[in-house]
Write a structure and sequence with these properties.
Layout: H1 9-25, H2 27-58, H3 60-69, E1 71-75, E2 78-82, H4 88-105, H5 109-135, H6 143-178
Antiparallel strand pairs: 1-2
Helix pairs in contact: 1-6, 2-3, 2-6, 3-4, 5-6
Length: about 180
């Protein structure tokens, strides 16, 4: 992410204050993003179990080995699957078969979310470069020009993120209708 560690303490203090002002100015955008993100989390919490059940049905043969031979536990971070040591080789084959079947039957869900992750990384990188440009030659820049620059970076970043969240929401809606 954006790194201020190479800056002098007075510069860090100056930038922190300017960033705070910029964030306050963009508070509404940030609030909208947060509520849109919470919406996505809600959609995901109903979508994921439905998708898993759909895949278990479509790939019942591939799933049955895993179900019989593995210990499956559910927690806040998803599903955890443990396999006894002596079953590791067979387990790898079973998981591979499951993945192949699941990817054929998940309506493009995995590849969609892989793309989302990649885009998110690109947004982060662009924002970091933008912020670094804002802080180049700090001494010669006024507070207003730095704030304006920061504001531009974050506005682009938040807007890109909002668009992506909108796409996720729409795609989840579309995928949900396919799972019925």
């Amino acid at each position: 992410g954006f790194n201020m560690s190479q800056l002098s303490d007075p510069d860090k203090k100056r930038l922190s204050g300017l960033l705070k002002d910029v964030y306050e100015g963009l508070a509404d955008k940030l609030k909208n993003l947060e509520s849109a993100s919470e919406q996505i989390e809600k959609l995901m919490s109903t979508f994921q179990p439905r998708l898993v059940n759909h895949l278990k049905a479509k790939c019942s043969e591939e799933w049955s080995w895993i179900e019989k031979n593995a210990t499956i536990s559910q927690d806040g971070n998803g599903m955890k699957i443990d396999v006894p040591e002596e079953q590791q080789v067979k387990a790898q084959e079973a998981f591979k078969n499951w993945e192949v079947c699941a990817s054929k039957n998940d309506f493009g869900t995995k590849s969609f979310f892989d793309t989302v992750e990649k885009e998110k990384g690109e947004f982060d990188k662009k924002n970091e470069l933008c912020l670094n440009d804002c802080t180049a030659n700090l001494g010669s820049k006024s507070d207003e020009s730095i704030k304006s620059c920061f504001s531009g970076c974050f506005t682009k970043y938040f807007d890109s993120t909002a668009t992506q969240i909108g796409n996720i929401s729409k795609t989840l809606g579309d995928l949900n209708t396919k799972l019925i």
